[in-house]
Amino acid sequence: MAHSESRRELLKKATMIGAGAVVGATAAPTIASAGQKVDPARGRLTAALADYVRHKFASHELAGEMKEIEEDIAGNLRGAETNFGIPIRNGDEPDFVFVPD
Question: Which of 2, 36, 42, 52 gets the most CB atoms within 10 Å of its CB?
Answer without folding.
Answer: 42
